[in-house]
Amino acid sequence: MAQKTVTIIIDENGNSEVDLEGFAGNGCSKVFEDFRGSDKIKTERKKTSFYNPAQTEKQTTTGR
Amino acid sequence: MSKYGLLETQIADQKYLIAALGEMGYRVEVHPQGAALVGYEGHERQEKANIIIRRQQLDSASNDIGFTRASDGRYVARLSEYDQRIGFNQKWLNRVHQFYKEKQTIATAKAKGYVFKGREVVKTEEGERIQLRFAVR
Asked: For residue range B65-105, what is the model confidence (pLDDT) as tens digits?
């Protein structure tokens, strides 16, 4: 089973990206919410893994 | 006397704000009830703040920089026009946001049981990006 990893990228504007790897379907939603906190979602993009198990999801949030 | 403007931030947790400013090299004063900001001439101003960077840590003609907790729980930055002109502007505030988000993310992730795997700073044309990696237990 693929290792589940979370990568957070924070730019100089305080915006952040949440990149989830090794998750599938709605399993990543809780993890995303853990890292989102109270940030506002700017864009959201589900990777093919959302529809095909054990791949990845990437979403962008802003702390602004 | 330089006029103060309000630049609204969405920073809501005091401890991460203090940690972020510390990461940027500032020692702050914390005043739960608020304290007056001091202008470049050494006189107290009418503006008050809860988190204060005293002017001695800034430019020789700077005023204090403050962060005031608003009624919705978020912190509002108080920056004089002079200090905004010399670099303590929105870009500077954005860096505060960046460090704040980093501190908040690491602490929150650890509290929720994620395993911190590393930090990397990536230089891009848009500036430095902080990359944090976590594993799920």
From this structure: 999 999 988 899 999 999 999 999 999 999 999 999 999 99
Q: Looking at CA atoms only, how far is residue B24 from chain A in angstroms? A: 13
A58 CB-near residues (< 8 Å, 6+ apart): A17, A18, A19, A20, A45, A47
Residue A46 to chain B, least CA–CA distance (Å): 19
Q: Domain ranges in chain B? A: 4-135
- Whether A35 and B12 lie within 8 Å, measured CB to CB: no
Question: In this predicted model, which residue has the larger pLDDT, B64 or A29?
Answer: B64
CB of B129 within 8 Å of any CB in chain A?
A: yes
CB hemisphere CA count around B103 (13 angstroms): 20
Residues of chain A in contact with residue B96, where contact means CB-CB under 8 angstroms, are 14
